[in-house]
Amino acid sequence: MSATFVIAVDGPAASGKSTLARRLARALGLAFLDTGLLYRAVGKRLLEAGRDPSDAAAAVAAVADLRPEEVDADRLAGERIGEAASKVAAIPAVREALLPWQRRFARTPPGAVLAGRDVGTVVCPDADLKIFVTAALEERARRRFEELRRRGQAPMFAAVLDELRERDRRDTERAVAPLRVADDAWVLDTTALDAEAAFAAALERALSVSGRRAVAGPTGRDANP
Ligand code: C5P
Fold first, then answer.
1. Relative to the CA of 87, which ligand 1 atom is closest?
2. Going by fewer Cβ within 10 Å, which terminus of the chain is more open, N or C?
3. What is the dihedral sign for C-alpha 156, 9, 212, 103?
4. What is the predicted pLDDT for the residue at 212?
5. How far is the CA of 24 from the centre of ligand 1 (A)?
């Protein structure tokens, strides 16, 4: 077995891929990176500066300027930042600028689980295992709706559904690194699975591909840049 083991977990918004990827990393003793946070951090910067997230020059400048502490999940949640992220993510120069960091992260022993949209197709096309996590749009909207309510918000289901539909459209139709299933990906449809069942299925798959055993406890490299 090579010194590093890399798992790419891709899928549409609210498919549960980040939670699944984080749990897999923990169970396998690998590092974890939610690549969506990189795009979210850039999107947030532009929103705060009052700039249009589709402004390529401003977005590229924001990448160059990004500080590691900005890539923090707690500060980057929410659909407003998610939408800005999907706009900056459609800019080729932004994607290009974020590539080296992601690849270095993946290749650092003992390896990593990376969650995103293009990990298996562009960032790590030679990943040892590629998982495409998906679920029906209505089910993803229901989960996102419940999550927002748990956080004390009062969302409208129809609005949540529309936002997800629009984000799916932008992520799948963009010219660079669109969301698509890699030819050699294993598709995990969680429409009828709860988080526990989805994790169990993915772990079984990862263990059989890697020849590893599950480990107890995190390794400490649950990092963002
Ligand atoms: O996964 P998350 O919702 O945090 O991602 C926010 C946005 O960032 C996505 O809608 C997508 O446009 C973009 N993204 C991407 N490539 C990745 C991860 C996220 O284009 N690898």
1. 12
2. N
3. negative
4. 75
5. 19
89 CA: nearest ligand 1 atom: 20
Residue 21 has pLDDT above 80, yes or no: yes
Cβ proximity of 17 and 133 under 8 Å: yes
* 84 Cα to the center of ligand 1, angstroms: 10
- Tens digit of pLDDT for each residue in 143-196? 999 999 998 989 999 999 999 999 999 999 999 999 999 999 999 999 999 999
What does the alpha-carbon distance between residue 176 and residue 174 come to, in Å, rounded to a whole number? Answer: 6
Output DSSP code: residue 70. Answer: G
Among positive and negative, which fits the CA dihedral 56, 62, 65, 69? negative
173-186 in b/e burial notation, b at 16+ Cβ within 10 A?
ebeebebeebeebb
Question: At which residue do the structure tokens 């946070």 appear?
Answer: 37
What is the pTM assigned to this prediction?
Answer: 0.90
Ligand 1 in reach of 140 Cβ (< 6 A): no
* Rounded CA separation 26/48 (Å): 34
